[in-house]
Amino acid sequence: MTKPFASEYPEPKAKDRIIAALDVATAAEAREIVAELRDAVGAFKIGSQLFTASGPDLVREFTGAGLKIFLDLKFHDIPNTVANAAIEAARLGVWMLNVHVLGGADMIKRTVDDVRGACQREKIARPLVIGVTILTSSTDAMLYEVGIKSDVEAEVVRLARLAADCGLDGIVASPYEAAVVRKSVKKPDFLIVTPGIRSLSATKDDQKRVKTVAQAIEDGSDFVVIGRPIIEAKNRLDAVRQIIGEVETTHK
Fold first, then answer.
1. Cα–chain-centroid distance for residue 225?
2. In whole numbers, what is the pLDDT of the chain averaged over residues?
3. Domain range annotation of the chain
4. Half-sphere exposure of 76 toward its Cβ, with a 13 Å CA cutoff?
5. Which of these, 246, 138, 250, lies nearest to 202 by C-alpha position?
6. CA torsion sign, 18 to 226 to 167 to 151?
7. Which of 33, 39, 88, 239 is 20 to 30 A from residue 61's alpha carbon, by CA?
8. Predicted local confidence at residue 156, as pLDDT
9. CA distance 200 to 212
10. Buried b (16+ CB within 10 A) or exposed e, 124-157
């Protein structure tokens, strides 16, 4: 039930669906992976570990080299702080960034509006702004611990609808919720970005809600974020080629 892309987001090639997660400790490691895979995947994710270690200069280096960067810092703070942080991310030239939907409607709308306005004034490309729903490490029991009484699927759907209503370009959600989100959110260009992707033989590590690439895309994911199965592979390029083959098989 893969979603047909609307004109703003043309149907991507298989490799363009893959976001390789640069979940490493140093800029040197990240540069090595990028040099190896820059022509093999659609984008790279920089998360909290690498950003904290190497800062915005590495992001500028990669975007300046023409790479599509998903800045995965999951902004969650008062509306003014999140909006200003997102504007700075846009100035770095990132392709995509994310905020926590649990930050609420005011935070989300302020961020969407302020990023759009800043990009128009400064004549820079507007990044996709997507929302984190429930982390793939979360379970029903963990939600209950923090006072959320609904189960994971119901909470993801609720947050996805809020994200769409507030103008976000899409959400981050596990492959287990992709299908129900696709049915529940009627916005044609609404993107679903899916972490928790593993090969059939891979360990789940700390991710609880995981599937394969083919399963995720079949269920409605637009982009898949893949870390360990690529980064820790003996031959990273071969690992990517195997994943691309799985994506292409899904679309036959």
1. 6
2. 89
3. 15-250
4. 11
5. 246
6. positive
7. 239
8. 96
9. 7
10. eeebbbbbbbbbbebeeeebeeeebeeebbebbb
pLDDT per residue as tens digits for the range 86-103 = 999 999 999 999 999 999
- Backbone Cα Rg of the chain: 17
3-state SS, one letter per residue, for the chain: CCCCCCCCCCCCCCHHHEEEECCCCCHHHHHHHHHHHCCCCCEEEEEHHHHHHHHHHHHHHHHHCCCCEEEEEEECCCHHHHHHHHHHHHHCCCCEEEEEHHHCHHHHHHHHHHHHHHHHHHCCCCCEEEEECCCCCCCHHHHHHCCCCCCHHHHHHHHHHHHHHCCCCEEECCHHHHHHHHHHCCCCCCEEEECCECCCCCCCCCCCCCECHHHHHHCCCCEEEECHHHHCCCCHHHHHHHHHHHHHHHCC
* Residue 201 CB partners (closer than 8 Å, separation 6+): none
* Whether the predicted pLDDT of 212 surpasses 80: no
pLDDT at 211 over 70: no
Each residue's pLDDT tens digit, 151-194:
999 999 999 999 999 999 999 988 889 999 999 999 989 999 99
pTM of the predicted protein model = 0.89
Region 15-250: CATH code:
3.20.20.70
